[in-house]
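ESCALATION

Customer reports they have been waiting on this structure for their group meeting. Please prioritize. Original submission:
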Amino acid sequence: MKTRSALVAWLRGPGLVVLLIALTQFALHLWTNAHDNIFRDEMYYLVAAQHPAFSYLEFPPFVALAAGVSRAALGDSVLAIRLLPAIAGVTVILLTASMAATLGGGTWTQILAAVAAAFAPVFLASSGLLTMDPFDQLWWTLLAWVLMRMIRDQRPQHWLLAGAVIGIGLQTKLTIAFFVLALLAGLLLSGQRKLLFNKWLLFGGLIALAIISPYLVWQAGNGFPVVEYTANYSSGKTFQATPVEFLLQQVLTMNPLALPLWLGGLYFLFFVTAGKPYRAFGWAYLFLFVFFLLQKAKFYWLSPAYPALLAAGAYGLQRLIESRPRLAWMQGTYAGVLAATGLLLAPFAIPILAPEDFIKLNASIGGAGEVKQESLTASELPQTFADRYGWPEMVAAVNEAYTSLPPHERARTCILTENYGEAAAMAYYGMGLGLPKTISGHNTYYLWGPQGCTGELLISVGRPLRDLSDVFESVTPGPVWSCKYCMPYENGTWIYIARGLKFPMEEAWPTTKDWN
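Update from on-call: job pushed to the front of the queue and completed.
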């Protein structure tokens, strides 16, 4: 009854408006996903779901589980598989508003925090794809929400719930471990020792360990391949941003006009007496900013640390208005400005526009619409858009090569691709075409092995001709895979038909290994 009364009171206050804000983001995703193409990584996770495991080479199992549940319950349309990420995005918005309320924020404070989270390009983009990131943002934000309430109520028992959130977060993406360490250091520095040195923290840690233990057992049993993968991945694949570039990436992807809000959140946490109990969130952000900068991490790895800052900034503005009532107009006006600018920036976060219209828009602002994530040559579209194009054309080219073979050769054929995107696209777009199994040495595909393929006859996608000629008796050129809006390194790829592997597949397979 008490919970129901609280819900009714919330709905009569800021609740309906906060829900409307969250549902606006949700509606944007539904409309976009109804006509969008599937993204490279999404197809990969759908394939991973068909190989249930406690871990995969480069990612824990949660995202594959989400992909499998979505496909089983709703099908594998783009709209269906992106429903859970969209719901995660809605939840982040609601939790951000709730954190503002936890600090003491009123109606407009909660609305401002919700708007800032809902229309920040980085949150809009992440919740528009079935990847690890929307769920990673959800668990970070939920952990911040739990700890903020623990600090407010001085109830270390909340570590039990926090431990469960941390465990699920680690099963989603390992980066939450850095957030946990940063928060623990922040709690120590902010004088919250009572919340640290107690049995509840230990019990919460044991809960997290129990949840993540299947992943650890799998990794240990396979020699911790994630370590080698991470070393390769961080050695140059990610965009090597300078400190200024990394800061600009944060400003742009959080919405440039939201800068005063989250900077205000840091000011509130560090320089206002009322913010002192929650200063751990400020320390955590600063620690993570420096750490991710030094590690040359992707800019969006830091994004889940912002909801707490947005809530603190919104509440800090409320306190300013309380001391200067003539500034009361600022909250509503600022919320409107953030909503308007966020919607204007939305085409750079999710593919609302047709490719040709986006290209024209981006050209009109000097190409500033792309925030680089990896050190790859870009196409006319940002990488997160370009990786949704070209896959049907690739499958059509492979099918052309396959159907050109005489029947007696088709029965002995396998398809070998250079990377997981190509392999996963064969599984997704090749359904119903009767094509043979697809194998690859890239990332988790390598661990799945040749799957019975002998190498007697391979249709190769993306492998260099010189590499194939060294290990096969004969290599015949097939069709060329061309695509208009895909990444440049995929466009113009030759499809080769290779016959007669010179070595047993067991000896040749290790040479395909490519973990990055």
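Sent to customer with the following note: The chain has a mean pLDDT of 94.
Escalation resolved.
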